């Protein structure tokens, strides 16, 4: 899991760099009147924000998985019971009994 943390931090750094590059391109395009450069800068800003948001979501998901794994390790019988009940409920929902007429 340590490698995942490092990858997430690297993604956040890349996202910030891309965002800063986008601001620089946008400003340079505004000064020179180059609409294409401004558009490229706006795109880089958007991509940087999206990449950073994705890294945050990945971290949150990873945390939820770690909590679930800890719960299953600490309470295996309760976990088995919960999964069994959910399985039965899903079975009743998706495969209802057919009446014999």
From TrEMBL:
Keyword Disulfide bond found: no
Species of provenance: Acetobacter okinawensis
Start and end residues of each CsbD-like domain: 11-62
Official protein name in the record: General stress protein
Transmembrane intervals: 77-95
Alphabetized InterPro entries for the sequence: CsbD (IPR008462), YjbJ_sf (IPR036629)
Pfam families: CsbD
Keyword Ion transport set for record: no
UniProt keyword list: Membrane, Transmembrane, Transmembrane helix
Annotated family: Belongs to the UPF0337 (CsbD) family.
């Amino acid at each position: 899991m340590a490698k995942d943390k490092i990858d997430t931090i690297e993604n956040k750094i890349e996202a910030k760099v891309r965002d800063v590059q986008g601001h620089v391109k946008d400003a340079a395009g505004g000064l020179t009147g180059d609409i294409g450069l401004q558009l490229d800068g706006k795109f880089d800003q958007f991509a940087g924000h999206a990449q950073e948001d994705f890294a945050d979501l990945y971290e949150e998901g990873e945390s939820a998985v770690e909590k679930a794994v800890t719960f299953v390790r600490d309470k295996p019988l309760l976990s088995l019971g919960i999964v069994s009940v959910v399985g039965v409920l899903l079975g009743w929902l998706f495969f209802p009994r057919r009446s014999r007429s």
